[in-house]
Amino acid sequence: MANSEPVTVADVQLMQGLAQRVTAVRPDLVNSDASFGELAWNWGKGHARDGASWRRRLWFSGGDLVSWGWAHLPHRVRHTDGSVKDVTGAYLAYQVHPDHAGLVDEVIDWYDGTAADVERTVIPGAADEFALRRWAAHGYETDPAALGDTGSWTQLNQRDLTDVEQPVLPAGFRFRTADEAGPKAAVQAHLDAWSPSTYTAESYQGVRRAPGYRGDLHILVEAPDGTMASSTIMWLDKANRTAEFEPVGTHRDYRRLGLGRAMLLHGMHLARAAGATHMTVACLGAPGHPQARGLYYSVGFRKFTRDAPLIKTGTAG
Fold this sequence. Notes:
The protein is built from nine helices and 15 strands. It is of the alpha+beta class. Strands 9-10-11-12-13-8-14 form a seven-stranded mixed β-sheet. Strand 3 (75-78) and strand 4 (84-87) form a beta hairpin.
């Protein structure tokens, strides 16, 4: 067992290894912040900016990582448009191997001690009935705001990579990779899709350092005028022959042209060529967020699992 410390790239590699082992035996227990690709993406884009507010704890058995907790403590967020937001609550990402399910109580105790008196949130998987009972026993309740019509709960979608449709781009558009387009274009593509954002050139350098990043699996769609109109990164889990899209975005001025759909299909062909037989992508699942879900369903994805957002107020224990 290790003490609470900031999250390092070596920690992420250990966490990804646990995610791979859990995926192999109980993929339904892998929630949206504990997958192979999401771990790399979240650490890469955020560690330089938010790393000082992160704390983690690792639990080992026989030399193998069997559980971890990654607490995001209160901090200030600055966006590229100059706006500032103070995050006053704490959030926990975590994972426990099903063979060591009882460790969830230690994870909860550590989180409550680390986050102290602030409001605490967590999103265990809805399929993890044991964990849900334990969180409830520690005073965590269903988060009504997260579960509303425009709530923030996430669903994981999946499909196999047989019979993938051929992509079709509008005339004059073409596929590029981040290796070909370069860092400046890759960063701008993300900002154009997600502005206002916290993403910077430094964020992208972190993503490139994240375990599992491959520039040849970072796909962009270039418009006739040279604008990078759409982009996505694929994270290849070789152990499970699974690839994950994260993130996926399209420039606001180039939406409804079929670019995202074509990019996803192209990406799946590349993932299959790289050895994947299975593909996943997460999206917001609430009824008020149909756009991404509709896009993913249009290329063959279907809902596999979902999160169960929980909350504990600062005065509750």
